[in-house]
Amino acid sequence: MDSLFLKQERMLVQTSTDIIRELMNKIHWNNRLIAIRGSRGVGKTTLMLQYIKLNYPPGSRIALYCTLDSIYFSNHTLLELAEKFYLQGGKHLFLDEVHKYPTWSKEMKEIYDLYPSLQVVFSGSSLLNILNADADLSRRCLAYNMYGLSFREYLMFYKNIRFPVMTLPEVLENAGSICQDVNAQCRPVQMFNEYLHEGYYPFFTGNREDYYMNIENVVNFILEQEMPLLCGVDPAYIRKLKALLGVLASSVPYEVDITKLAGMIGLTRNSVITYLQNLNRAELLTLLYSDLTSVKKMQKPDKIYLQNPNLLYAVASAPVQIGTVRETFAVNQLSVNHEVEYGKAQGDFVVDHKYIFEVGGADKTFKQIADLPDSFILADNIEFATGKKLPLWIVGMVY
Diameter of the chain by CA atoms? Predict the structure, then answer.
C-alpha cells in the first residue's frame, strides 16, 4: 500500500493543473461509482490525477490512484486493495485501466456493496461495456465518455487562447459575433489547419513525425490488445483488421459495399460488419447511417470515416484528400454531443434530425441544399460567417 501512495505522489508532482478539460466540470464527482471511458491517449489518467491534486492536500491518504496493470496486482486482488485502503481510512479510490484486470466488474460490485462510504472512480477503454459487464453495474455506475481535444480545446492547450463551450444552436444563431471574437484573438484558418494535422490528441510535442508514430502505437495497442481482450477478436485476425483500417484510411469517406470490402481483405460479409462495429466502438472509425430509426439499416453503415483527422493523416498510405479531412472533422466534432446521420439525398449530414450541413471549401454554394430549412454550409478557409455560410472551424467550439 505504501508503494502505491509513493507512486501516486510522484505522478502528482508531474501533473500540471494549468489546463483543465471541460469534462472535469461535467462529472458528478460525489457519485459513489463513476466510470470514465475513452480511447487510449485522450487524457483519462491526467484528468483523474488533476482531480486528486486539486481536491486533496499533498500527502493525503484518503484518496488513492493506481493503475490495474500495475505489478502490485500480480499478487494482490482489487478487493484486497479496497479492503486495506478502507480500513486505513481511505475514502476515494481512483482506478485506471480497469479493463486490464479480468474480474474488475465482479470485484467492483462487491466493493460497492461492502463499503458504502467508499467512492470509486475508474477509467477504461472506450470498448469497455459497463452495461454488459460480468456483474450488473449499470444501475450503480455513472458513466462518462472522454474524447480527444476539440478545436476550442486545442486553442486552449497549445495556443493559450480561451473560449467558452458553446451549444450548437448558439453557434448557428450567433456565428457572426463568434467569428469576430475569435478573429480578434487569433488567425483561425491557420490554426485550424494545424489542428487538422496535430491537434486532436493531447500529446503533440512539436514533432509531427513523432506524433504520428505515437498515434500508430495507439492504433496497434487497440487492435492487438484491447480488441482481443474486450471484443473477443481472434488474434489471428488482427492483421486483417489492420488491412481493413488501411483500406478505409485510403478511401474514406467510404461509400459502403460490404461484399466488395470483404473480398478485398479476405473476410466474410458478416465478419466485416462485426469488425466495423467494433472499430467504431474503439473510436478508430465513425459509422454513419442514413436512418438511425431503422433496425435493418443499423446492420450496414451508409458511410465510413476514420474517427478524427489526425488519425487519418497518421495511418493513410496514400495522400489524404482535403474533402475527406473536412468531413471527418465535422462528423468528429458534432458526434460528441449530437446525433449525426448521413444526409444521402439532402446535404452531407443531418444533425439531431433537424440541421442539414453541407461541407466544402471557400467556394461551396447552396446549390445542393437550396431552400431547405435549417440548412448550413460549413466552409473551409474562411474566417467570417456570411448568412448561413459558416467557417468549418466554428463547429469545433461545441465541446
Answer: 69
Question: What residue spans of 252-379 are helical by DSSP H?
Answer: 258-265, 269-281, 309-315, 322-334
pLDDT at 39 over 80: yes
Do 354 and 370 belong together in one domain? yes
Find the domain containing 105 and state its range.
2-146
The partner residues of 34 in beta bridges, in order of sequence, read 121, 142
The CA-atom distances, in angstroms, between 155 and each of 181, 239, 252, 353 are: 13, 37, 27, 30
Same structural domain, 297 and 340:
yes
pTM greater than the 0.90 cutoff: yes
CB proximity list for 119: less than 8 A, separation 6 or greater: 30, 31, 32, 33, 34, 91, 92, 93
Q: Which of 101-105, 249-253, 391-395 has the lowest mean pLDDT?
A: 249-253
What are the Cα distances from residue 376, in Å, to 150, 151, 249, 373, 391? Answer: 20, 19, 27, 9, 10
Residue 147 predicted with pLDDT over 80: yes
* Average confidence (pLDDT) over 83-109: 95
Per DSSP, the three-state class of 203 is coil
> C-alpha grid cell for residue 189?
484558418
In this prediction, residue 248 carries a pLDDT of: 85
